[in-house]
What we know:
Elements: H1 10-14, E1 24-27, E2 30-33, E3 41-44, E4 47-50, H2 54-63, H3 71-101, H4 106-129, H5 135-143, H6 149-173, H7 176-182, E5 190-195, E6 198-203, H8 206-229, H9 231-237, H10 239-261, H11 273-283, H12 293-311
Antiparallel strand pairs: 1-2, 3-4, 5-6
Helix pairs in contact: 3-4, 3-6, 4-10, 5-6, 5-8, 5-12, 6-11, 8-10, 8-12
Amino acid sequence: MAGIGVVEDEESIYGRNKYILRPKLYLHKVNISFFILSFPLRCRPGKVTEEKHPKASLSSKVLSLEELFSLEVWRASLAELLGTAVLVFSLDTIVISTLQTETKTPNLVMSVLIAFVVAVLLLATYPISGGHINPIVTFAALLTGLVSISRAAIFILAQSVGGILGALALKAVVSSGIERTYSLGGCTVTIVAPGPHGPTVIGLETSQALWLEIICSFVFLFASVWMAFDRRQAKAVGRVMVCVILGIVLGLLVYISTTVTATKGYSGAGLNPARCLGPAVVRGGHLWDKHWIFWIGPAIGCVAFALYVKMIPREHTHSY
């Protein structure tokens, strides 16, 4: 006589789940598997739970709303805030002092000092937050799946506030004349200068400035940040060397963007929207002219970098 019973199969014997319902057909004392339950249920003694939907778990992982209430994330964001504040204060001071001293090679001196400062600050913030101190790095990490949307939003907010605080600190220690002359070392595409027939606008074309931001942002991510994202390379090279390379690449891109154009009024590729935001908020005026370029350009560069990463065969990537 046929009947349905509960038995243990190989999976239940050798696996972790020791209680799996499998209908059996008893026929002349010979057990014959009749069919396997395909319902999305896990049957255990006294407990029946539904399988988690893969899309729901993926959505939860991408958003990670619990990180909005994580003390660890907010501590890391504090490091991002302070690191970005020090970065903006230092870089804008370098820009002003280099231009004020009227050295023969201001672009070169500026780039070397920027590379050094960036490397030091990355080493200081890396153990706490991962050493982003730049919305470009955070946005690229988000697009490549290394950080969640919640963490990225908190970091970018902290970096933006840090940029403003750094500009406020710089304004507090420089004279009004220097602030007015050098615009707190902010990011500019064009400026208004006196001309033979009255004030005239000088600087770089909008399309040129946008392309420079896109290209320099992509090169920055491709040549250096990808090394930091790749755990195998980062381990092989070492944390100190990775931070030094990041600083060198950033300084080199600043030198290239300011030298290749050789246009008065253009401050060079921003390569850090938070650094450009700080002086614009504190100083205002012409620093808001075409300010969007310093956000949209890097964003497009990050998207291009993320697409490049997605096209790489999985066996050739060793990310986090």
